[in-house]
Amino acid sequence: MVSSHPKYRPDIDGLRAIAVLSVVGFHAFPSLLKGGFIGVDIFFVISGFLISSIIFGSLEQNNFKITEFYSRRIRRIFPALLLVLLTCYLLGWFALFANEYRQLGKHIFSGASFISNITLWTESGYFDNSAETKPLLHLWSLGIEEQFYIIWPLLLYFAWKRKMSILSLVIAVCFISFALNVGRVHHDVIGAFYAPQTRFWELLLGSLLAYLTLYPQKYWAVLNKLNLKLKKPIAQTLNANLLISPNMRSAFGGILIILGILFIIKERAFPGWWALLPCSGAVLIISAGPNTWLNRKILSNKILVWFGLISFPLYLWHWPLLSFARIVESQVPSPKIRLFIVLVSIILAWLTFELIEKPIRRHGQKKIVIALFMSMVMVGLIGFYCYKQNGFLTRPLVKNTEKAYSQFVGPLWKYTQNDTCLKRFPFAEAKDYTWWFCMLTKDEKPNLILLGDSLANQLYAGLSQNSVFSKYNILSIGTCDPAEVDQSKLTKNYTRSPCSGDRQLHQQELINHIIEKNADSLKYAILSLGGSVSDSDYILRLKRRVDFLEKNHLKVIIFMRPLSFTTNIQKCFPRPFSSTPPAKCEFNAAQREEIKTLFKPLREYFAKSNPQVIFFDQNDLFCSNGKCSMVRNGMPLMRDDVHISEYASIKVSKLFAKWAAKHVPEMIG
């Protein structure tokens, strides 16, 4: 008789310890443990094995209940998760700026809803904050795991009742998921990393192992069928090579995991084929059983088993603490601070396990489950409300400098696209892009067009709010450099970037068509350049685009590239708990002179070839008297290291209006 609960194996807890310590080590000291993130993949295999063993055993005994299964999951997952989510919310109230707290609110909602992987996937665009500033980033794996356990038990229950082949089902779904992973990882690595359908195969490997462990006769039945069909003694061959001695399997599995930690780095196309290293290693170690030397002597060691028992709360605690330290310091904390955080995480994990997880797990009362479920709903709603309230600008941390902090909430990027533009100038391909700029002031023919990437689009905020330009129907469209596309360098290799493959050509064709159709109304084209402006080939391609614009009777104005800064703009403002004072955020004007020098060949070329083209230097906004600053009148001029804030965009439009009155008076009159 198959038991509905597999016998406890301390070696699996030891393997859990290896997994969690690898992840913690990678997050705390990424340069030392570059492949430590594969610990999550080991977790997936372990989870698939243990949970599927319980499901298969319950189905065999005809006592599987969906409600009981999910009640057990709630008692296992919710207590520690609730504590961490609430702690992050409270820490954020006192330590985070409005934009950071708003994002945290969204991630609390996603974590409580177990959709963090989907949320992070949709955020992985051009304007996304770095991973280090997301305290709940690590909940992506919990999202995938719980999405799997919403679907998989129901699918198994249905197949069992219909007397379908469970083994065939597991193998088929596992193969499909793995194929989707391999097929996607090279053109959409972010999607392959976060999408549940490209990750389920890792849990299903554990499920397959669970099934073959509970029903070994099924394995031999498959081998015998193959033996008869192929008329070869493959059963003996497979037994000799694939089902090698347990000690060899365990050792080989350990080697695969070590190789994964040493040679898999985050820059590789992961998961893809690379994920087979940690997943196969975990399968081999678990399949070897508890009595092999590695499993008995190493993995069953009391210290590793202890870490395995607290692995879930340790996983939950370590990353938020590291992330908050990174945010507060506005830089990577020192190794001593990171080591201290790891030790604090271990203590918190042990306390969580002893005082919260164990007592609640022992209580199977329905009231506990309902209370946990309702608490998670409430925490999710609290996070959602924080997000909708833009991170509570009236908090003590930000109320005295509300205007400055509001620039970080993301007001500039509400100007990326609007329905007026999308309906008037539809572009079906844009649905495959991570970002697409399409803004139009009024539902009429445009008479001023902004061409370029985000450095052009960021000008829309100021121009559209400046009364001097109120007579213009401004169109901001496209995401790539405005120079004519070099078709000899186009490929069919697409990423989430809207300028990958041949997408830049498609955008150019769309925009040129818009210009030709609206040539009777368009008067001015403002270009912001992202290419190598000193390169002769680039200059020639830009000239061809300018020729096209002038052929359609547009006056071309080129905005010289704005300054960029390596200092995080938020370091310019005071933050609680930070050990470093706010940066002065002032610099000498050397970079501005470099930009002028960079643009000199371009300006000289166009002065001869297209003398009607004029150049505007927007860096007067940042610099005066030989000094440049990221802050003016207590307001941030930058939103990040490259893009200007909405406040700065408005200031640039005022500078441009004054400049235009002198150099293009007909534009203002």
Can you offer a commentary on this structure?
With 669 residues, the protein is mostly helical. The chain contains 28 helices and 11 strands. Helix 3 runs antiparallel to helix 4. The longest helix has 30 residues. The radius of gyration is 29 Å and the shape is elongated.
- Give the CA-based shape: elongated
Strand residue content: 5-15%
Low-confidence stretches: none
Average pLDDT score? 90
Strand order of the largest sheet: 1-3-2-4-5-7
Q: Considering DSSP H and I runs of 4 or more, what fraction of the residues is helical? A: 55-70%
Sheet/helix structural class: mainly alpha
Into how many domains do the coordinates divide? Answer: 2
Assembly status: single chain
GO cellular component, one term: membrane
Organism: Legionella micdadei
Protein name: Acyltransferase 3
Keywords: Acyltransferase, Membrane, Transferase, Transmembrane, Transmembrane helix
Summed up:
With 669 residues, the chain is mainly α. The protein is built from 28 helices and 11 strands.
Name a few traits of the molecule.
669 residues, single chain, 3-stranded antiparallel β-sheet, mainly alpha, Rossmann fold, 28 helices
Q: Topology of this protein?
A:
Blueprint: H1 10-28, H2 39-60, H3 66-95, H4 98-113, H5 116-123, H6 140-161, H7 166-185, H8 189-194, H9 200-214, H10 216-230, H11 234-241, H12 246-263, H13 276-287, H14 293-299, H15 302-309, H16 311-329, H17 335-362, H18 366-388, H19 396-399, H20 402-406, H21 419-424, E1 438-440, E2 448-451, H22 454-457, H23 460-465, E3 474-477, H24 503-517, E4 524-528, H25 536-551, E5 555-559, E6 586-588, H26 590-609, E7 614-616, E8 623-624, E9 627-629, E10 631-632, E11 635-636, H27 646-663, H28 665-668
Helix pairs in contact: 1-2, 1-14, 1-15, 1-16, 2-6, 2-9, 2-13, 3-4, 3-16, 3-17, 3-18, 4-5, 4-18, 5-6, 7-9, 9-10, 9-13, 12-13, 16-17
GO molecular function: acyltransferase activity, transferring groups other than amino-acyl groups
InterPro entries: Acyl_transf_3_dom, Acyltransferase_3, SGNH
Pfam families: Acyl_transf_3 (PF01757), SGNH (PF19040)
